[in-house]
Amino acid sequence: MKRFAVGIATAVLLSSPVAAAAQVTPADFIRPDSTELDSLSQSYKDALLLLRDTLTTVQASVSSFRRVLAQGGAETVVNRARSLHAKCGRAVVTVREMEPTFSASRAPDDRVREQSVELTRQMRTLRGDLDENCGALAPEGPGERADTLRAWGPYYSSRIDRALVAYYESVARFLKAADFKLEPPTPS
């Protein structure tokens, strides 16, 4: 009966010229119930944990790549670059697949909606940064030669690090707006 009354009130409000001008929708009047919120929170958490795990492997690969740049043999440097390139490729796919989870239309309120928009924008930026900077380490590109990797590796790896830091800062703002925590927490 309560939903029926809300539906009637919504229909009356939507038929008014003021509501039409403001483009009010029925979803604006009906708050999701706790089951829907729990499901949404769980999907956010699952996606963020998957992204954290995927991006942690990228960070580990960046560190490993950096360690061998100065003292590793040519073959080791090239192999680490290949490994980093492959992990970045998987991360780009994972980030792309998780973006719809944070669609602003799914957000339960304005704060989360605002941070969802920022987070998805940051995810697109991260994908672009990983594509560009890891692409320079591709086995078929200039990354085949160890001397080129030694010269440019620090530059590209630092850009990857900056992109990851910016993404994690955006995640922290999203978590604060959504009022939940990840266990274990995301890197900072």
CA-based shape: elongated
Our count of helices gives 6
Low-confidence stretches: 1-33
The biggest sheet amounts to: none
Rg over CA atoms: 22 Å
Beta strand %: under 5%
The multimeric state of the shown protein is: single chain
Helical residue percent? over 70%
Distance between the termini: 48 Å
Structural domains: how many? 2
Query: In terms of structural class, how would the helical and strand content be classed?
Result: mainly alpha
Give a structural overview.
By secondary structure, this protein is mostly helical. Helix content is 76%, strand content 0%. It is built from six helices and no strands. Helix 3 (34-71) runs antiparallel to helix 6 (146-178) and helix 5 runs antiparallel to helix 6. The longest helix has 38 residues, at 34-71. It is elongated. The N and C termini lie far apart (48 Å). 26% of the residues are buried. Mean pLDDT is 81; it is low at 1-33.
